[in-house]
């Protein structure tokens, strides 16, 4: 798109959809993952604040557990959030994909750029959010923040019994692989079309856009945008928050 025909930021406000309807079974028993506390504040509130920290984001849609929308609304009301941002809560679905679609259905028409961000990535820095937005505004239909891998990755023939040895079938070249994070950013129409067209199971939204045959671009992600999945991730997340408090103190 040429600079003249590209909408200005004011003409193309950004909405963020935060799917937060997962149970988070890998974290152990307890409340839905997004409602677990990090340093006394629910993970979801950290995630909402992380997205609302971008001055480009003017609406955050939280997709709550199907029976938890009222609880999530009260949580948002109980925590300080920026005044310049609007917040909506909608009930989610059975799969992450369905939850995202329900969030998209709630978007008012003026939002041409949409971010989808896991509640389970509560500590994403605002610079990462802004880098994704900028790449969408520069014309990419879909953008993912991504990091190079430290580990070598093997493709295996998955065992049917947990813990049984699994034959390795391939070793992709590590230098060409990236671990993909969120927020992922989209031209709204493209993401809607992807959700209408792709019905198979996916683990992220950008792969649906890939299935439309469109190019998805990766921008640098951030180590603090990791996904809180297992109990040790909670320890790491609290350590990151402690480091931020220390740094803010100087
Ligand atoms: O399960 P996974 O860690 O991939 O979930 C990623 C995000 O999707 C989490 O924020 C989770 O709350 C959300 N999710 C959802 N609805 C589901 C399943 C997961 O909103 N049915």
Description:
The protein has 250 residues and is an alpha/beta fold. It has one domain (14-248): Spore Coat Polysaccharide Biosynthesis Protein SpsA, Chain A. The protein is built from 7 helices and 12 strands. It has helices spanning 43-52, 69-78, 96-105, 126-137, 188-197, 206-211, 231-248; strands at 14-19, 37-38, 41-42, 57-64, 86-91, 113-116, 142-148, 155-156, 168-170, 178-180, 184-187, 216-220. Strands 1, 4, 5, 6, 7, 10, 11 and 12 form an 8-stranded mixed sheet that branches. A two-stranded antiparallel sheet has the order 2-3. Strand 4 (57-64), helix 2 (69-78) and strand 5 (86-91) form a beta-alpha-beta unit. The chain is globular, with a radius of gyration of 18 Å. Residues 19-22, 33-34, 63, 92-96, 99, 118-120, 229 line the site of cytidine-5'-monophosphate.
List the helices and strands and how they pair.
Blueprint: E1 14-19, E2 37-38, E3 41-42, H1 43-52, E4 57-64, H2 69-78, E5 86-91, H3 96-105, E6 113-116, H4 126-137, E7 142-148, E8 155-156, E9 168-170, E10 178-180, E11 184-187, H5 188-197, H6 206-211, E12 216-220, H7 231-248
Parallel strand pairs: 1-4, 1-6, 4-5, 7-12
Antiparallel strand pairs: 2-3, 6-11, 7-10, 7-11, 8-9
Cytidine-5'-monophosphate is lined by residues 19-22, 33-34, 63, 92-96, 99, 118-120, 229.
């Amino acid at each position: 798109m040429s600079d003249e025909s590209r909408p200005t930021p004011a003409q193309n406000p950004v909405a963020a959809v935060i799917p937060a309807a997962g149970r988070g079974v890998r974290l152990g028993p307890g409340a839905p993952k997004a409602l677990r506390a990090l340093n006394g504040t629910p993970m979801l509130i950290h995630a909402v604040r992380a997205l609302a920290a971008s001055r480009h984001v003017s609406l955050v849609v939280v997709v709550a557990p199907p029976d938890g929308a009222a609880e999530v609304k009260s949580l948002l009301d109980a925590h300080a959030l920026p005044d310049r941002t609007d917040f909506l809560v909608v009930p989610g679905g059975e799969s992450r994909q369905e939850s995202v679609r329900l969030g998209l259905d709630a978007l008012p028409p003026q939002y041409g750029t949409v971010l989808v961000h896991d509640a389970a990535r509560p500590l994403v820095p605002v610079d990462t959010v802004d880098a994704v937005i900028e790449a969408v505004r520069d014309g990419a239909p879909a953008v993912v923040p991504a990091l190079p891998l430290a580990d070598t990755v093997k493709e295996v023939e998955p065992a049917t019994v947990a813990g049984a040895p699994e034959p390795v079938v391939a070793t992709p070249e590590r230098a060409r692989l990236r671990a993909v994070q969120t927020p992922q950013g989209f031209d709204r129409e493209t993401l809607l079309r992807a959700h209408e067209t792709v019905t198979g199971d996916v683990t992220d939204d950008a792969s649906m856009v890939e299935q439309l045959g469109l190019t998805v671009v990766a921008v640098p992600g951030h180590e603090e945008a990791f996904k809180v999945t297992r109990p040790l991730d909670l320890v790491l997340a609290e350590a990151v928050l402690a480091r931020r408090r220390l740094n803010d103190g100087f």
